[in-house]
Amino acid sequence: TQQGESWWLCNCTKAICIEDNIVQVIPVICNPPPKPTCSNGLSPVPVIDEDGCCWHWECDCYCTGWGDPHYMTFDGLYYSYQGNCTYVLVEEINKKVDNFGVYIDNYHCDVRDVVSCPRTLIVRHETQEVRLRTAQPNTLQVEVTVNNQLVALPYKKFGVSIYESGINRVVEIPELKMNVTYNGLSFSIRMPYSLFGNNTQGQCGTCNNNTADDCMLPNGNIAENCQTMADNWQVVDPSKPQCSPGLVPTGAPSTTPTQPCKESSICELLLGSVFEPCHAFVRPDKYYAACVFDSCVLPNLDLECSSLQIYAATCADQGACIDWRKYTNGVCSHECPPGKEYRACGPIKEMTCKSRGQNDTSTKQVEGCFCPNGTMLYDTGVDVCVKTCGCVGVDMIPREFGEEFTVDCQDCICLEGEHGIVCKPHVCDQKKVTCDAEGFYEVIEVNPKDSCCPLFTCKCNTSLCTSKAPKCSLGFEVHSHIPSGMCCPVYQCVPKGVCVHQNAEFLPNSSVFVDKCQNCICTNDVNVSTQLNIISCEHIPCNTYCQPGYEIKPVKGECCGKCVQTKCIIHTADNSELILSPGDFKNDPHNNCTIYSCVDIHDQLIASTSEITCPAFNEDSCKPGTISLLPNGCCKTCAPVESSTPCSVRHRRDFIVHRGCRSVDRVDLTECEGTCGTFSLYSAEANSMDHSCSCCRETRTTEKQVVLKCPNGHSLSHKYIYVESCSCQDTQCSRPDERENNEENNEASTLNRIKRAISLASK
């Protein structure tokens, strides 16, 4: 050893070579260093010097994020950012660790797409990529993958350890003395200043105990605000093609609601007595601002709980554990699975049967679901609470040492020792059965007393039987019975107690159709020879009486005839009935001016009642003793007295009937009448003018048109002659060639007059 050289001895003692083999032993004296103030407001942590004897204070790099989301950088700078892409939270400026970084994947957690929430936290270290992903939005359900493969916790491989701690999932890299926690609503990143001081960049800022440069951009420049900075730390994510570094920055939503907003009363807990024990360690103002923001912008998502949760977690990290959820009226309650109970202040690593002999020096606490008092977690990978530390197998049922049980058809015993559960195949004591009778076959059934040992029994399957059911004739059915102890049935045909006629069966007391002229019924009497029920029949009596106007007509295919109407039945004015054959007409017995008629149109009988309208008649204009009835027996006429009254047109309104069709409304009809003693009437039936033996005749006529309605529903356009003017003319009533048959003409004229009267007055 050369002069002046020094080296360490045990117990923090240093040896110095003075000269000539003279060694001076000097004990190292450590003076307590002054306690610094950390810009993030957290307590500094003591760190052992490199010599291993003395220590100094350091401000750990502690970054958190929560809600929609809000960030607290390593140095304690608070800001909110609503980007919905994937961003860098932490990377090294000068790369010392291979492939190291922490990243966050945000998504829009509001239908308005104005705010975002964390969905996945990504931790990369050398060859592994750990993803902590929220299984259900806004919940504490988190699933863990390593290199895109789901893993069970605890997980430990290649320098990365992942485990559950209360409500959190923790990724720990012991070599770097760092850990990342995530619970679906919030995250925290803790890194030692000694390894990462002045060498971090990203949305968590620079870890140098100075907030002035926390909004540093990737190029080293300082942005005006951290929202601008956060946009620039976007990374390429193939699952989000809409996101690309360098696009338009994400704008922050307005924190001023469209309507006055009263923050949730839950936020006031941060400033009140519930969290007062923590105020001396961590200031609540930034968490309160975040809570108010969440309750105003997203009032329906209960995101304000995340501000209280991350503040409580930060307080617990600083040694002040707060049981706060019970003061939120159930809004921020946390439900635990069966067999677990919630504790606000539980151990970071819960004691298990495997670790109870180990010393856990950590005094920090976390909230979560823990085993009830008097029980203990069996192991970190076996989430079962046990009263005594025996064994827990694949069925997750705790067993005591020495307990025997059967699982998966193995007879097992719980033994104290390294292997714990020792098993051997389950032995069955069974009796063999034989199934020789027809129709039987062997089956294996589950034994309700021992599910591992099946029961061998004989079952009956009738499809294996060779005998078939016979086909019985009508009126008979197959009956079968199975003899005791047998499988296959015995068949026979037995009467059904029915009647049979023309390949059909009839139940007793039901009608049987034999022919149209008989009423037949199935009786309960049985024919001894056929064993079928007897059919009894009676002839059908036919009706021989029909009402007046009806006649019995034969019906094809029927046994009896049917009353069919063959004449018109007319009710007269005095409520008596008048029966007319088709084509007949008859005057009312009490009123010759009323005429009843019957016509047959397309096999449909139509009865009509007509009123004869007489020409105007003035007895004063008649010569005495000349008044008489016209041939129609209704209208009066006479020999007129000489008068200077000119022949003129007379108007009347009446229906027009032609070929069985009638006008819908009454129409304006005209006729000539005057002192000439003559008149002329239009006949709709003949569609021409009929003349009486008078000389008052038409001098000018026009042709008019009217629509007639027919009984079959059709319409008919009909033309008729309309008299415009009349004058007295010296004309003859009959043609010269008709004088020889004057008597016949008079009869025809009378008939025409009656028909005209009927047609004009038809209703």
Automatic annotation (TrEMBL):
Q: Where is the VWFC domain?
A: 391-459, 497-564
Question: For the VWFD domain, which residue ranges apply?
Answer: 61-244
The record ties this protein, via InterPro entries, to: Cys_knot_C, Cystine-knot_cytokine, Glyco_hormone_CN, Mucin_vWF_Thrombospondin_sf, Ser_inhib-like_sf, VWF/SSPO/ZAN-like_Cys-rich_dom, VWF_dom, VWF_type-D
Q: Does the keyword Acetylation apply?
A: no
Does the UniProt entry include the keyword Secreted? yes
Q: Name one GO cellular component term.
A: extracellular space
What is the name attached to this protein's record? MUC2L protein
Instruction: Give the species this sequence originates from.
Output: Alaudala cheleensis
Query: What gene, per UniProt, encodes this protein?
Result: Muc2l
